[in-house]
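Note to self: the last two entries modelled the partners one at a time, which told us nothing about the interface. This time every component goes in together.
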Amino acid sequence: MLGLMQDFPLTIEAILRRSERIFSSKTITTQTVTGQERITFAALAIRARQVGAVLDSLGVSADGRVGSFGWNTANHIALYFGVPCTGRVLHTLNIRLFPEQLAYTVTHAEDEAVFVDRSLLPLFAQYLPQLSTVKHVIVFDDGSPAPLPDDPRVLRWEDVVGDQADFTGRVRDENTAAAICYTTGTTGNPKGVLYSHRSTYLHSLILQAPATFALSEVDTALPVVPMFHAMAWGLPYACVMAGANLAMPGPGMTPAALLDVMERERVTITAGVPTIWMGMLPLLEGRELPHLRRVICGGSAVPKSLSEAWRTTIGLPITQAWGMTELSPLGTVCTLRSELADLSEDEKADVRSTAGLPPMGVEMRIIDPETREELPWDNEATGELETRGPWIARQYYRTDEPGEQFSADGWLRTGDVAAISGLGYMRLVNRTKDLVKSGGEWISSVDLENEIMGHPAVAEAAVIALPHPRWMERPFACVVLKQGESLSKDELLSFLAERVERWGLPDDVAFLDEIPKTSVGKFSKKTLREKFADRQLPD
Amino acid sequence: MLGLMQDFPLTIEAILRRSERIFSSKTITTQTVTGQERITFAALAIRARQVGAVLDSLGVSADGRVGSFGWNTANHIALYFGVPCTGRVLHTLNIRLFPEQLAYTVTHAEDEAVFVDRSLLPLFAQYLPQLSTVKHVIVFDDGSPAPLPDDPRVLRWEDVVGDQADFTGRVRDENTAAAICYTTGTTGNPKGVLYSHRSTYLHSLILQAPATFALSEVDTALPVVPMFHAMAWGLPYACVMAGANLAMPGPGMTPAALLDVMERERVTITAGVPTIWMGMLPLLEGRELPHLRRVICGGSAVPKSLSEAWRTTIGLPITQAWGMTELSPLGTVCTLRSELADLSEDEKADVRSTAGLPPMGVEMRIIDPETREELPWDNEATGELETRGPWIARQYYRTDEPGEQFSADGWLRTGDVAAISGLGYMRLVNRTKDLVKSGGEWISSVDLENEIMGHPAVAEAAVIALPHPRWMERPFACVVLKQGESLSKDELLSFLAERVERWGLPDDVAFLDEIPKTSVGKFSKKTLREKFADRQLPD
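The predicted structure of the combined assembly is written out below.
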């Protein structure tokens, strides 16, 4: 027997309608090349409808893919709404991808139009000749004097904008595709994750929960994470839904510029990768941040020392979150449960160094890779982490079969190895592909990196496996020191010897100027492995 | 084009699974006739599965309706989960209904089994002979010595409980019916609102939003509102989802007993009708309630003076909410927006005396009843309030057609007249339908008029609501006698006492020469309300 409730689809248009009605005077502030733009949510809705009308008038297919190549701006948020509310699919292009990879994703998605920020035109123009599916390039003026490419496809927003599309009821099925984001987190070509209106709506809704971001209309959010990253971790949609103001950094992504925005806009919540918070740390002293209540950090594990440094400097530790493009991306958030209120600060910091708790809508399990049996939540047993829920991918775009990552019984295999505590705190031990297997024993490079980064002189550390004649593989540490610090290999090993089992110590250490990063800012272990492919470990 | 997200149904089982995994040590405390019972969420899940197994073993149909006739207890929560997780439909029976109405709802829903608290058996036994669809009555021992009725259908829970049902995947379609609740808020027979798993899941989810109840695992909730009222305003499901402890009052519903629970269990959030909070007010002084953060009040409008008296006594005003059985029931919650932070206390109290803001998932509009045009949100224009959203009814159970209340374009006509401010605060002005709301219960003035007009000496009767210090509203009867007849107030009340429940009798009677009429010859209740605006009801 079916219930007798309204058949009301969970769509992105419903988010926009609400914001327009209830939160019309909330604002989005954008740092542009030349200054600042502040628009209301009422104006955002108009701009989103203008985006829709432009796509209609250009004749973009009813379910066509539309790329965005932009900074974090109000215009980009207008695309987040305007494209899917017309039934089309927003493809957020990663501006840091290698040219061949970017061209691959645009062509694979068959993007018909791309919206580009003018200050990114010099970069985008390099790709443009290869983008054969793209019929229209619409340029948003952001104050940059960059010249327009000499290509008939290139149009200026000011020249094409006019009417507003009527979104009413365009998307009736909440399972309609809304956006696509390509993940580079796996081997081979980037793979497309195709979000639906339903998954986006539910993912946005959960960010209001106290256990996640606790977003509400009292907030002003600063999404530092680029908007081409997994829908910028849900913030653009969730803020518009919750009525939270948005402070968009535009091209100004230096720690100092971001701190200026945080002070001026009284930012209450922000989100980005560890590198950002590490770079901001030396600049925190003397800044006026009394409104800041949650600094979300994801993309890579947050070293305990980094979170503690924030806590001791401004009284606010970092809130770790874990996710994947395939998870929309939210998987877990590390908020402290009431049962842990009496822990010491150091014990609390240990809990904060885990990936945290899954919100309602994300189910987790850990699986023994050999037996495929589920393992207990005792904080000891480690197994491959699998997840399921309404905002988790079931297949990549344009693949005939779900593939290995999407196992038969409806769970996504994350490729991460994890332990889970009795309270539900998930601790990433490693990527399945990023463990060091030494003489039959697994060594967690993540744990070792955390220990190395616990040394006061160390800024960053990445551990990779190198071949070893006797142990098959041994850990090798790549270390970046903080400016002005010095540290020898022996000093580091002595430091580690008190914290790590003898057999888990790195066999050798390389001191580098920087750890190479991927296009999404993660440590590129692939590059390190290539760089040190011929390195001989000492006997 | 459809998205490629997991087809993960939003079911009540998903709520239970989560609570069992993440919140197994959270607790439900129940005040029983003889003492207190405290169980964990882990034990709740077991009990819910036992409910399922009992229904299976008794042979209740796969989608059969199962009644509950009980206080607010952990057992009742086990029914909230155990019945729908097996695919069956929970019917929460209103223990205060007239016998014929109760029998009507049980028979209309075709309840096959009913779970009854032993202390309610003396009441329930009166109805039992009329309940021809009911094959099994399962009695929960709550410490009461009430005798078991001599009826072969009556079973003791202790005698039938045993196995645990496996819920896994029993409900695959989230639109499956989960529960039915009959509303007496309209004229005529009670009407059944059939909730689905999806509507229940989404309604529970929104109660975590800061703008609604901000429920999280730090909370302990005390649902004072009876669990047969519109799924007890969402608290049982939402608390189990969010990991909030529950403090269940059982039969002890006096203000003093409730305050004892609030102190002892450190209750942070509670919900009930104005009469409760009015009765509690004189007892607040000297109580230790530092944990209390939100007192939700619904069912009738909250007088400004009541909310202000709470604020001046314990520093916490009452949070008004508005809903209907047809809305699962949440329609609006009156939390103060950040834009209003600088208002004076008196101005804030004025805002708090409105019904408040709709959460994500509830859309509102006000309609001119003549032109059917939408009216502006200017806090002045008043029109009929209509709502739509995923937890709003589209039709009553076992009706061939949606009916007048469910207008053609997908909005529910609430029967309330309202104005809405620019910020979205909804203010109820009047009801289109003619009902008296006494202590949270509807009294139909039409039904009462019919009974009065059933007296041989009465020519005409019109019943209006007058304000009452304790019950918020009480019925007041205006009566015109037939020529040459005489009748006293006491004679009329004696006549009615045989036909109407005690609490449904009018508090006072005025004998008039005629009932004022509108231009189309209908009773002008507006004129009567004006005429008796200053009339004091007798104590």
